[in-house]
Amino acid sequence: MRQYLLIFAQEHIGFRLPELRCLLSLLKIKAEYDERSYDGESPFLPIKLTSEKDAKLLMSRSMLAKSLIELWGHGSSRDEAGKLIESQWQEEWQQYCQDDVSICFRVNPFGKQINIKDKIDIMEEIAKYLPLEGPVKLTNPDQLFHIYEYYGLNPNEAPPMPLKVYVGRWIADGQRHLVHRYSIKKRHFIGNTSMDATLALIMANMANVTPNMVIFDPFVGTGSLLVGAAHFGAFTLGSDINANVIHGKGKTSRNNTPNKFRGDDENIRTNMRMYGLESRYIDVLITDFSKNVWREQPMFDAIITDPPYGLRESTKKVGTEKSYKIREEQVEAHIPATLGYGLGDILTDLLEFAVHFLRLHGRLVYWMPTARSDYTDDMIPHHPCLKLVANSEQILTSMVSRRLITMEKCKNLKDLDGYPVKAAIRDNKYQQPNALRDKVYNTGQSQDSDTELQESTNSQKDENVKNEFEQAPTSR
Fold first, then answer.
1. In whole angstroms, what is the distance from residue 208 CA to residue 409 CA?
2. Cα–Cα distance between 360 and 412 in angstroms, integer?
3. Tens of pLDDT, residues 360-413
4. Contacts of 467 (CB under 8 A, 6+ apart)
5. Is the pTM of this model over 0.90?
């Protein structure tokens, strides 16, 4: 196997290895890398792959890897990296050093600023270990060589010399350009909780989305997750209880616009058309997720969703504790009453839905919000037909985080002993409606509150937490 180096983008650090594992499984790529010795904060991961073809295939899907190089040398100093190149020189590398092959070097320091003169000195120091004979060409060279130097995570305390040096030949870049292509800043139809493009595409990777799959989002909102799945060729559909969002009615979520209300063309289909993905869009339904409207059969290849958290506003479902009849002439204009819908119930209903409507080996990928002081693994819903694949945390505020949970359907219900079995949560802290909201906004009365908040008055605590959450990254 050949030695390569993955260079990760410095964001969503906890999602790096889960995305990598999912892509290797999806693309059927054999790889070797040491998770135990990997420093989760470092952007560099040495990895062995069977071929350059596999390396390029991996990068054709990765959202969190910036680049991948064929690793020629590495060490704790430039001299050590250079001597390793000499001692492990491979005959096949000679083809990249011929006099008719143009070359270019790039120096990439991490954790320290380096001026142009010093970069040139570094290039010359490394180049003496390489038998390069071709001309230097700064634009579109035949071969591009990278020198990565790692100075630690704190630029203010960077050492004079690098802690680690990597030298290699560029193979491919990841899909970071898609972050700009699908940026919600440029999107025609957005909401207060539209999911950012990077996370939407990561979720599609975690769900193993491939062309012609059928993907469903039961809490579709403005459809950001459908965009991510459609990019990878899936047919997409969704549902939501909020008719105003589905139809693009009400006040716009954009600031500094002359019109405070959404236009007639603000909807999910318009977004799909904007990106050339309309052929991958089936439709959306207005329906209450707690009331099943589907004929029971395995119809979805993956379910990707971001359920409501109950933080910005209460979570509700159709229902009433009262008993009354609706006269026939009132049916058409009737607006159903609603009840509180606890986060715990939402999540167990979601697992039940996945068990009944996912195909075998299909994946369920969803966000689960938590108060950070509360979290335990027992809070993750479980069902014997679903196995946990990944659990990654995104910190939103000092008190609130959300976890991207990936599950795979490993059994059909009929194959279970003791059927029927229901989804459950061992430690269901958020069973009551608005339980998470009460925990976060009333944290002044909680013994688990942050130290900085303990020093304020209760009223100040509530306001601080609200402001902090409103400024944090949001969901759908």
1. 13
2. 7
3. 999 999 999 999 998 999 999 999 999 999 999 999 988 999 999 999 999 998
4. none
5. no
